[in-house]
Write a structure and sequence with these properties.
The complex is a heterotrimer of chains A (553), B (206) and C (101). Chain B is mainly α and 206 residues long. In chain B, 78% of the residues lie in helices and 3% in strands. Chain B starts with a strand and ends with a helix. Chain C is 76% helix and 0% strand. The chains are: A mainly alpha (553), B mainly alpha (206), C mainly alpha (101). Chains in contact: A-B, A-C, B-C.
Chain lengths: 553, 206, 101
């Protein structure tokens, strides 16, 4: 495919925001194949759906603030947690880092002008929007929102009269969006690295996104076919999973989790890549153990695809199966631990700057460690039998998915938004808001560990009075957290509208390629494709501070 | 200083990248059907005798004939690429056309097969099928879904090859630029490979 | 340009080669059908799958040009196949040991 780019010789290259291509204005955005514009389209849509998911979370916690009915009936409550899960998993966490930051920065990080398949990239976004609309349709269409939980377990998902088919179809379409992104990124990293950028000179976020892309390609089709089969079974009464027709509900669980467990690694790996990017910059030190971190991304992707049945220890598996999957679950924790050790070692005796990106990264390490360790606990068979399907599990996965991946996304926003838009947010507000978010998060989820341990089941509408205090604390935590998130987003929006303009190429002192180009980037990314000599994160110990941005007092 | 603009042409043609992308897409197809093969294998393990008996209902002759048709269509597809490499445009178009004809033949056979079953009352949700033992309901559930999904992929392939025929006749696909035909060829071969496994597992386990 | 065309005229891309592979595929299909008539118990499935794998291998390497592509393509295919295989094995590691009443 040939592309003719007109380069004015008067030196003024428009940024990608102002670039006028074949289409103008609004059409120039929704028909654009520029990876940066597509990244922005994803940014707006994904964060919008995130807020919808947050709203459902808010409503869940509001209902649970006291025993008995608070605001809705049990049927509606079931729909709340189903939608909260579907939206947060399929419309927020799985796409977020790859589709927003991967799309925007992957080509720049490897010194390319775009991804390998720009038109496929735009199609990915269209599919995302269609999937999102189908999810909304499942809420408003007659029949009522799906009430199966985001896990759609058989036989209820075949029996219930609610809008399960819309929800399943939404997840199916979103799966295709994810697959296309994965195909694009694997090809891009293989084919479009700048001259001199060998595999072990690529930034760590590239390793993470690359490993994630492989998982996206290989496991997403399995959920695709599984959900499609449930749709077919509901519609044509075929006989595939339904026990009344000879099917095996546990087999559905196997197929569901063969995707959905690696899916959590799709969610966390890119966020870990972000952490690996941010720590060297704000500790002003070379990352400790670059090769170990890079290869641990591959190891997590590989082993993470082999542990799925640890979600099913109480479902009726054989003893042998339980043993094997428990063992594999122990093994998969090792590469994650390697990353945490290397990050900590990088911080040690570094020149720490507690800028907002680093604050969220530090919270990530704290929260991911708690989530990860409780995950290892859950991998122990005797313990899991006791706490399976309790709030303990809910706390565990929110600590890794939200406290880990979610905070990684917040960190990335604080790190890269100035580069993407050429506007700075209020740093003081960002720092103060961090504390609201951090305290709110931990107050929301830590009590769940305790009450789950004491026997509080998950997905329950009502509960015994002995659990009330924990639910109360948790709900108050949710209010603090949501307040923090709203202020954070307001800070960003205010920055885009009237924030201080950033013209410097490198406000944080980063050493990866995005900090060598214009802020915001020009349409073509680079005037000339660079030739890479050094590995990334090569900070010298006595280097003077090259940051040009002065903190707002 | 001149304010004239000069034009720099960034040519992005990456045939290897295009093939790489298609291979990755084929992996997703492999795993899509792989999920169903997983289902098949577990249920076969669970209901070995019922599967054995139910497979007798299927017509091995038509199945084998369809296998031969699809294998031949793979041949003609590969030959069509060899032809365009040698700048033999008409031959390439003709071979693509034969591929489509063979694929249509496959679908016609499938139509008759399914039709015969329907007339015996064996179709998803039918009273006849639902009164059969559980393993048999599952067998035919899998049969219809797997061959049905495969059939959809054959139809998509027919449309794509027809588009390639048009591209070849218009000179968009030519002897020094034929990666589009190659990638569609890859897709078609995978459709063939899936049937290579479907055939024995459904028709030959008697 | 000439060099490129020469490359495609080597054996693996010749018309004759493709037709030979096609004949092998047809022969293997005939073998599969014939063997299915013989009751070898559990071996029947194994034989059918082995023959199918050989056919798939021929299609992959010759028709799909895996043999003449650069090595990374073969690595990709191996990764995908190994993932599918391991998933099968792990799943059966559970189902093979379930105690049924």
């Amino acid at each position: 495919m040939n592309e003719t780019i007109t380069v004015p010789t008067n030196g003024k290259h428009p940024s990608y925001l102002d670039y006028q291509g074949k289409h103008k204005g609004f059409l120039g955005w929704i028909l654009s194949t520029d990876h940066k514009r597509i990244g922005i389209l994803y940014l707006i849509s994904i964060l919008s759906f995130f807020l919808v998911g947050v709203t459902f979370g808010f409503l869940i916690r509001l209902e649970l603030i006291a025993p008995g009915r608070t605001i809705v009936d049990p049927q509606t409550y079931n729909a709340f947690f189903t939608l909260h899960g579907v939206i947060m998993v399929f419309l927020f966490l799985i796409p977020a880092v790859p589709a927003i930051f991967g799309n925007f920065f992957l080509p720049i990080l490897i010194g390319a002008r775009d991804v390998s398949f720009p038109r496929l990239n735009l199609l990915s976004w269209y599919l995302y929007i269609i999937g999102g609309l189908l999810a909304i349709l499942s809420i408003i269409a007659p029949g009522g929102a799906a009430d199966t939980g985001w896990t759609f377990y058989i036989p209820y998902s075949v029996r219930t009269g609610t809008n399960v088919i819309y929800a399943l179809f939404a997840a199916f379409v979103l799966g295709f969006s994810s697959i296309l992104t994965g195909i694009n990124f694997v090809t891009t990293v293989h084919r479009l690295r700048a001259p001199g950028m060998t595999w072990f000179k690529t930034p760590l976020s590239v390793w993470s996104i690359y490993s994630t892309a492989w998982v996206q390609v290989l496991v997403t089709p399995i959920i695709g076919i599984t959900l499609l089969l449930v749709i077919i079974e509901r519609t044509f009464n075929v006989g595939l999973f339904d026990p009344a027709l000879g099917g095996d509900p546990v087999l559905f669980q196997h197929l569901f989790w063969i995707y959905s467990h690696p899916a959590v690694y799709i969610m966390i790996l890119p966020a870990m890549g972000i952490v690996s990017e941010i720590i060297p910059v704000f500790a002003r030190r070379t990352i400790f153990g670059y090769k170990f971190i890079a290869l641990s991304s591959v190891a997590i992707a590989f082993f993470g695809s082999l542990v799925w049945a640890h979600h099913m220890f109480t479902a009726g598996m054989s003893d042998t199966g339980q043993f094997i999957f428990s063992l594999l679950t122990m093994i998969v924790s090792i590469p994650s631990a390697i990353k945490v050790f290397n990050w900590t070692a990088t911080l040690y005796k570094g020149s720490i700057d507690l800028a907002p990106p680093l604050l969220y990264v530090l919270a990530f390490i704290f929260q991911f460690s708690i989530g990860g360790l409780t995950g290892v606990m859950l991998g122990v068979l005797s313990l899991d039998i006791m706490v399976h399907d309790t709030s303990f599990v809910v706390a565990h996965f929110h600590y890794v998915m939200f406290g880990g991946a979610g905070f990684g996304i917040f960190a990335a926003l604080h790190y890269w938004l100035p580069k993407m838009f050429g506007r700075m947010y209020n740093i003081k507000v960002a720092k103060n808001t961090f504390w609201l978010v951090f305290i709110g998060f931990n107050l929301l989820y830590f009590p769940m560990f305790i009450m789950g341990w004491l026997g509080m089941p998950r997905r329950y509408y009502d509960y015994l009075p002995e659990f009330h205090i924990y639910h109360l604390l948790s709900t108050i935590g949710s209010w603090i957290l949501i307040l923090g998130i709203l202020i954070m987003f307001s800070n960003f929006i205010a920055a885009l509208i009237r924030g201080k303009k950033v013209n410097e190429k490198n406000i944080w002192g980063g050493e990866t390629l995005e900090w060598t180009i214009e802020t915001p980037p020009i349409h073509e990314n680079f005037l000339e494709i660079p030739t890479v000599h050094d590995a990334p994160y090569e900070y010298k110990q006595n280097e003077t501070d090259i940051r040009q941005f002065q903190e707002v007092k | 200083m001149s304010t004239q603009e000069h034009t720099v042409t960034y040519i992005h043609r990456d045939d290897i990248g295009a093939r790489m992308g298609m291979w990755l897409f084929l992996f997703t197809e492999l795993l899509l059907f792989g999920g169903m093969f997983i289902l098949y294998s577990i249920y076969r393990f669970t209901y070995p005798d019922v599967f054995h008996l139910a497979a007798k209902e299927l017509n091995t002759i038509i199945g084998a004939f369809n296998t031969a048709i699809l294998l031949t269509s793979s041949l003609t597809m590969a030959l069509s690429i060899a032809a365009i490499q040698r700048n033999q445009k008409s031959l390439s178009i003709f071979l693509q056309f034969i591929t489509i004809v063979l694929a249509l033949g496959f679908m016609v056979n499938k139509y008759f097969e399914w039709g015969a079953k329907f007339s015996h009352g064996i179709y998803p949700g039918s009273d006849v099928l639902l009164s059969k033992p559980a393993g048999e309901i599952i067998f035919f559930g899998l049969y219809y879904v797997m061959t049905g999904l495969h059939g959809i992929h054959v139809i998509i392939g027919i449309v794509l090859i027809a588009i390639m025929m048009r591209f070849t006749s218009k000179g968009i696909i030519k002897s020094d630029s034929y990666v589009k035909l190659e990638t569609i060829g890859l897709y078609w071969h995978l459709v063939d490979i899936i049937w290579i496994f479907l055939f024995p597992l459904f028709y030959l386990i008697t | 340009m000439e060099k490129k065309q020469e490359k495609y005229l080597d054996n693996s891309h010749s018309y004759g080669n493709y037709i030979l592979v096609w004949l092998a595929l047809m022969a293997l299909t005939a073998v599969t059908v014939a063997v299915a008539g013989i009751n070898l118990g559990g071996l029947t499935v194994a034989t059918a799958l082995i023959i199918a794998s050989v056919k798939a291998y021929l299609v992959l390497t010759i028709f799909m040009h895996l043999k003449s592509e650069s090595k990374i393509f073969r690595v990709f295919v191996a990764v995908a196949l190994i993932f599918l295989l391991v998933s099968f094995i792990l799943l059966f590691s559970d189902y093979s040991f379930i105690v049924r009443n």
